[in-house]
Amino acid sequence: MMIKKLNAQNFRRYGRIIEYPRKHLKGNQRNLFRIVLTESSRLGWRIAYLIVRDKKIKKLECHPYSFESFEPMCGRGLLYVAKKSDECAIECFQLDRPVILKKGIWHGVVTLTDEWEIKLTENAKVKCVYWPLEFALNSSQKKNK
Questions:
Q1: What does the DSSP assignment read for 37-57?
Q2: Contact criterion met (CB below 8 Å) for 38 and 125
Q3: What pLDDT digit, counting tens, does each position of 5-56 carry?
Q4: What is the Cα–Cα distance from 20 to 130, expressed in whole angstroms?
């Protein structure tokens, strides 16, 4: 499996990159603010900090009713994602920018460094569903530019 470079186009089926659109346009010297996601839910939200030490994983998880943000803080790592529980459908991205996963996307992370720190945001109460894999996903994938 090849590691894909993360961009808005190739990640669209799983979610979106957290970024400010057209921030490169000059002329406005004010601070820029944009809401990137609103969710009308009575569940509320929680912010978490994850330190990833796994270099391989044998399962993916999904949250059927919650969006989830992955915001890399330090270190480097890979995000595995799939829309359905089909091992041939799993894709791998080097997560070097913050993203929001859609509800129900299968996902898992591994570190490329000793530790990888990620900030997460999701519903305060999250249902987790796990998918055991036939093989391990690991940090020694080939990089695809």
A1: -----TT-EEEEEEEE--SEE
A2: no
A3: 999 999 999 999 998 776 776 666 676 677 777 777 777 888 999 999 999 9
A4: 33
With b for 16 or more beta-carbon neighbours within 10 A and e for fewer, the 98-131 pattern comes to bbbbbeebbbbbbbbeeebbbeebbbeeeeeeeb
Q: What is the pTM of this model?
A: 0.85
Q: Hey, what CATH class is 2-20+44-138 in?
A: mainly beta
Q: How far is the C-alpha of 122 from the C-alpha of 127, rounded, in Å?
A: 11
Closest-CA residue to 71 (of 93, 55, 92, 49):
49
Domain range annotation of the chain = 2-20+44-138
| Token output for 68 | 């989830």
List b or e across 15-33, with b for residues whose CB sees 16 or more CB atoms inside 10 angstroms: bbebeeeeeeeeeeeeeee
d(CA 12, CA 7): 8
